[in-house]
Design a protein that fits this description.
By secondary structure, this protein is an alpha/beta fold. It has a single domain, classed as 3-Layer(aba) Sandwich (Rossmann fold). About 50% of the residues lie in helices and about 15% in strands. A 7-stranded parallel beta sheet has the order 3-2-1-4-5-6-7, sandwiched between helices. Helix 6 packs across helix 7. The radius of gyration is 18 Å and the shape is globular.
Length: about 260
């Protein structure tokens, strides 16, 4: 299948590691011009070097960007346009909010989760869409969580903010389709990343178990009996954000090995 991504200008946020980096790697394999961001310049430089070496694609660059800072988001999009002429694809990603129950969370925790996991997506889309409108096409994929379909224990902030991303995408699918801008949401199940390692350790400490115990229990609940790999998740993103996708918009996809039972 021809994804028609060669030479396309792609932004992937929060991409120095984990799912964002995996997505950037897959876009680079397709010959796209990829700009990645995160808050850590050393981590970004390392990721860029690794992606270039692994793919042979030298049109990979980075921008330091705090996703809670509106001005830095504006500068991120401006850099993509300066480097590559436009923005064809926007992959919205941000680190997950802290684990905990409702009474654990302060106003500051709620504000942080709102700014990082919902408002940041609003801001990146607002900056990128004018360039997509000008050229008459574009693709946006928002990375969320399986909590967009089924709430997750001890993750009240994620359960609250992530569904907001789906509402945003559904609304924008209506508003942007006439300009041939497609927007979708992809949620990971249990994918083997640092985030899952962190959550497993938090749960292990709470239950007086080892992280390995938690992993084994989790894998038993997954119909495929294993954690997913970042590249498996990334391939779904690449399809939805590619020229091969011409009619799917406003949809939510879970990549979870069959874990979520909700319809």
């Amino acid at each position: 299948m021809d994804f028609r991504l060669k030479g396309k200008s792609v932004i992937v946020t929060a991409a120095s590691k984990g799912l964002g980096k995996a997505a950037a790697m897959e876009f680079a394999k397709e010959g796209a011009k990829v700009l990645i961001s995160s808050r850590s310049e050393p981590a970004l430089q390392k990721a860029v070097d690794e992606i270039r070496e692994a793919t042979g694609n030298t049109t990979i660059d980075y921008a330091v960007c705090n996703m809670k800072d509106a001005q830095e988001i504006k500068q991120l999009v401006e850099k993509a346009v300066s480097l590559n002429g436009t923005v064809d694809v926007l992959i919205n990603n941000a680190g997950g909010p802290p684990a905990g129950s409702f009474l654990d969370m302060t106003d500051e925790d709620w504000q942080h989760a709102f700014e990082l996991n919902l408002l940041s997506f609003v801001r990146t889309i607002r900056e990128a869409v004018p360039f997509m409108k000008k050229q008459g096409e574009g693709h946006i994929v928002n990375l969320a969580s399986s909590s967009i379909k089924q709430s997750l224990d001890n993750l009240v902030l994620s359960n609250t903010m992530r569904p907001g991303i789906v509402g945003l995408a559904k609304t924008l699918a209506q508003e942007l389709s006439e300009d041939n801008i497609l927007i979708n949401t992809v949620g990971p199940g249990t994918i083997e990343t640092d985030r899952i390692t962190e959550l497993n350790q938090t749960l292990a400490d709470k239950q007086n178990k080892t992280a390995e115990d938690i992993r084994k229990e989790a894998e038993e609940n997954i119909p495929m009996k294993r954690y997913g790999q970042p590249q498996e998740f990334a391939k779904a993103i690449v399809f939805l954000a590619s020229g091969a996708n011409t009619y799917i918009t406003g949809q939510s996809l879970i990549v979870d090995g069959g874990l979520v039972k909700a319809l």
